[in-house]
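Notes to self after the Tuesday call (sharing in case useful).
The group wants a holo model before anyone commits to mutagenesis around the pocket. I volunteered. Ligand is flavin-adenine dinucleotide. Logging inputs and output together so the record is complete.
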Amino acid sequence: MDPKSALDLLSIDHLLSDEERDIRDTVRKVVDDKVRPYVADWYEKGDLPARELAREFGKLGLLGMHLEGYGCAGTSATAYGLACMELEAGDSGLRSLVSVQGSLAMFAIWKFGSEEQKQQWLPGMASGEFIGCFGLTEADYGSNPSGMITHAKRDGKDWVLNGSKMWITNGPIADVAVVWAQTEDGIRGFVVPTKTKGFQANIIHKKLSLRASITGELVFTDLRLPEDAVLPGVVGLKGPMSSLNEARFGILYGTVGAARDCLEVATDYALSRIQFDRPIAAFQLTQEKLANMALEVQKGFLLAMHLGRLKDEEKLHPDQISLGKLNNVRMALEVARMSRTILAANGVTLEYPIMRHANNLESVLTYEGTSEIHLLTIGRALTGIQAFK
Amino acid sequence: MADGQVIGNIRHIYVGVRQESLVKFLVCVKQVPDSWAEKKLGADARLDRAGVDAVLNDLDEYAIEEALRICENSGGNGEGGEHSITLLSMGPDRATEAIRKGLSMGADNAILISDEALSGSDALATSLVLAKAIEASGAHIVLCGTESTDARMSVVPAMLAERLGWPQLTFAGELKIDAAANKVTIKRMTDEGIEEMEASLPCVVSVIEKINEPRYPSFKGIMAAKKKTIETRSLADVGVSGDQVGSASSWSAVVDSALRPPRSAGIKVVDEGNGGNELVSFLADKKIV
Ligand SMILES: Cc1cc2nc3c(=O)[nH]c(=O)nc-3n(C[C@H](O)[C@H](O)[C@H](O)COP(=O)(O)OP(=O)(O)OC[C@H]3O[C@@H](n4cnc5c(N)ncnc54)[C@H](O)[C@@H]3O)c2cc1C
Ligand SMILES: Cc1cc2nc3c(=O)[nH]c(=O)nc-3n(C[C@H](O)[C@H](O)[C@H](O)COP(=O)(O)OP(=O)(O)OC[C@H]3O[C@@H](n4cnc5c(N)ncnc54)[C@H](O)[C@@H]3O)c2cc1C
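Result:
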């Protein structure tokens, strides 16, 4: 009997339209050509040719792909999820680049920006000419962003921004930052060109996770912005939270890709590695691992597809995204660890993608809402009682 | 025509100036089994295509890309553009998948000739059917890949040119079209040097992979492809009768086939001072030296 790939087992591809499959296959090809041969080196160096990649992705239409107008492709949400899945099968760092660009920075401008802000930034961000970042988290305010210290004060018609943001993906390479800050009216978003005087970005080194992604600290010192730099469409935490929901949606697909990649590598390895004169795939314990992993990866994919269809019908609730993100990141981490045991010593090197995925997924478990916060969100949905405040 | 023998010469087949700059491109595209997949011959000694992923023939992507680039540099194609790019394929209904990829890249529309009677057609029959469809299409220039990755005969472009009575510019590594001057120029890279050839429209050009780097279909392209038409035609529509094609009337038939024998273990030469001699006598035995 010919071995089947784990994702063929349930024929999940049947749930995809031709168009979704074409988009998925195109991203897979681009990842195979432009990412896979190099990503282990980027990871080892702790760097990423983000600009080149952004232009390449921009040509495809990957950046802000599920947004309408302003040079964006305007695909379905499901297609966006499938693209994230292929990117993250390459590396979570690439999916992060695309999530932050499209779902956080572009989405915030697209949803809450003025017409001028949209015209000024979105076409260039869609093409990859401009890179964006999203500054919400601060060193002392992570899970609880409502306490943020960064603030913007009126000075005549201008705004003056002071404070700092921490753990900001794309921060040190960005052309434009969407920064959330306290104001007299509550938390508001600002569109900040990074060339503005008073803007400084420092790279965060020594990460052991998401090394093929550039993370930084943003510091604002008496940074002066014109009146129209504020996002007019939203006041309060609802602004950043609705952007985060977009990105979390990408993650609940993306992590299925990382898990699938681990499982594929582990399966190939198990078939070719001989111990005690047999491929280790012939041992029942190995088959149990492979079967359990295949089960979980497919359940995760089905969950993602269900949530994708709900999103395309505009019926997806944030609690459902929490459930999806929680499950699929947890699942992917488990699969990565289990796959690693099949590769044993080889599994701990960068010669294989597994440890890289496993390490990446630790960040993915934390950002866009920690697993604890998502658990408490589901708890609140079930009990009506908010336990995290 | 012995194109391969002229090095560095320019050959004119000159028919005077055209009045218009519009160019109707027709790109011949074939659906083939994924080149990475293991290929098997079925009981009828024909390629078993059922179990393998089918894709657009590699070199045909280069041909499409070249047409797109020429259009992009001179007035565009499609809605609002000056030129047009039509894909032409002969194959089973399933070939629409490969055609869709070409449309996603940016071609405007497609013709698929699909007919039960075609199965088992050889290159002569294939070229007959394609040539009939090309004649009816009003195309000014036909672009082909130089060869398919499955049957790899590299003959269809030349056969098309012969049947149409059009000049052929084959193995193009570079292509320029000056439509108003009615001049098509190619560069053909050979081991001996670069041949530059010229012909007038209409003509047939086949391309090699050095000509460009095909684009990935963009998401906008993929979504737009859904709305483009793939016109399916039967043999009768094309004006060819069933007894001119298919395995029964093919000039060539696959009589037999055998699997490649499994690799046997090689000979290990241990160098004990006579290694050089051993190697030479091994090569001499195999009649390699
Ligand atoms: C690589 C990377 C990239 C990032 N990129 C960005 C970015 O682009 N933009 C951005 O704004 N942020 C970004 N972040 C920040 C990320 O969103 C935060 O790290 C995350 O929100 C958690 O905040 P924290 O690290 O301060 O943890 P804390 O909030 O200090 O949490 C510490 C622990 O306490 C738990 N905890 C906290 N509160 C509760 C509670 N009420 N009940 C139970 N448990 C609780 C948490 O779940 C966690 O386990 C990034 C982080 C990483 C690692
Ligand atoms: C294993 C095998 C052996 C074969 N041996 C022979 C043989 O000995 N003699 C013989 O006559 N036939 C043979 N055939 C049949 C042959 O595949 C078909 O005749 C085929 O349509 C043309 O040959 P090709 O694919 O080699 O074309 P090539 O000449 O290699 O293709 C060059 C270009 O022509 C165009 N083109 C070719 N086919 C099509 C098509 N169907 N639709 C649109 N454009 C097309 C494409 O642009 C392509 O890039 C064989 C087939 C197989 C699978």
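Two things stood out.
The domain at 238-383 of chain A is CATH 1.20.140.10 (Butyryl-CoA Dehydrogenase, subunit A; domain 3).
The interface with chain B takes residues 18-19, 22-23, 26, 29-30, 59-62, 65, 73-75, 79 of chain A (CB under 8 Å).
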